[in-house]
Amino acid sequence: MARAPHILIAGGGSLGSIYPGLSIARQFQERMPGARVTIAGDGRAIERHTVRGAGLRYSTVPSSRFPTCMLEAPRYVLRNAAGWCVAHWLLREQEIDLVISLGGHAAGPMVRAARASGVPYAIVEQDCLPYPATRDATRDASVVCLAQDETAARLPMGAPVRWTGPVGRPGFEDDFGHCPGGRLPMAGDDGRPRLVVLGGVAGATSLNESMPEAIKRLGAAAADWQVVHQTGDGWLTATESRYAAVGVNALVVTYIDELAHLARSSDLIVCRPSGSTLAEVSLAGLPAVFVPDSRRRDGLHEANAQFAALRTGCPTVNENDGDLAASLAGCLRPLLEDEARRDTIAERLRKMARPEASALVADAVCEALGVLAVAEPPRLRLAA
């Protein structure tokens, strides 16, 4: 009997580059029963927990962001050299048949190893502005799946691009796949409009420090709103204290596991504009205020926020524009007070949603590789 195919999906560095992999992995498992799927990340505990909780294998590929100063350079070189060795070992010892890159730290070493070893690979580009390494890797990719069709103009001529749309986490596909933006009240909902603040898994320092003061400055405009704030690891106590100090009654949590369920009864969100976040707010039809991470040097957040502003009207707040709390309050006030304005943005977001994106990615990869999914025996078969 032929060996079941082994597909490795590489991301890591943030859950935003892991969540789409869970949705894509599910599509391959449905198309090829018995196929083995491994997700590779940079080894963070939250990544391992999330992937294994979905019933998938997880492998650690050492990697590091590009250094921002000379002191970080040795660590960058050592970790990425180790990642190169681990990636080659995985391809050989785990008999990987296909690599799918989601971006993120672990994707770079895996794609470079796949190119050197002759293992076919596909690229899923969730952001509007591709990494330079991604642009170079498209030359030998079997297919490049784009979240936004405008991204094709930023890639080399002749790159095998397919517009599949942005991929969200499985929970958003399940809750909103058949009805983008179909939000419903949750059990125990008190009927008040809800504002969600996502400080990220690792903690968005600026949001955790500035949102309590911003809510205070909003005064009566935010008085009837329930505030739910995800702080990320290590920020819970400090953020709770800031809300208490300004007299704001907010629900502060470290991490929200079931964000899709919360989105069903939420009315506005403040968050980072990652590619995965754009996918999920469009699926949920959830108006957003985007705050790009000023610590990033690649411009991805700014490009995503600019794209969302042009397409949907979602406003952007620059972290470096003086008093961030004042900027957040000024941006939030018209959205809190004007339900019609929120509805207009929500409708534009729903039009941008691609509920079938993960299925389109799986189909595009199989088509590009010339393979068919067969149930018995489970394997990749060359298409006629």
UniProtKB/TrEMBL annotation:
SUPFAM superfamilies: UDP-Glycosyltransferase/glycogen phosphorylase. Residues 195-341 form the Glycosyl transferase family 28 C-terminal domain. Residues 7-135 form the Glycosyltransferase family 28 N-terminal domain. GO terms for molecular function: hexosyltransferase activity. Gene3D superfamilies: Glycogen Phosphorylase B. InterPro entries: Glyco_trans_28_C (IPR007235), GlycoTrans_28_N (IPR004276). GO terms for biological process: carbohydrate derivative biosynthetic process; carbohydrate metabolic process. Pfam families: Glyco_tran_28_C (PF04101), Glyco_transf_28 (PF03033). It comes from the Bacteria. Keywords: Glycosyltransferase, Transferase. Its EC number is 2.4.1.227. PANTHER family: GLYCOSYLTRANSFERASE (PTHR21015:SF22), UDP-N-ACETYLGLUCOSAMINE--N-ACETYLMURAMYL-(PENTAPEPTIDE) PYROPHOSPHORYL-UNDECAPRENOL N-ACETYLGLUCOSAMINE TRANSFERASE 1 (PTHR21015). This is UDP-N-acetylglucosamine--N-acetylmuramyl-(Pentapeptide) pyrophosphoryl-undecaprenol N-acetylglucosamine transferase MurG. The lineage of its organism: Bacteria, Pseudomonadati, Planctomycetota, Planctomycetia, Pirellulales.
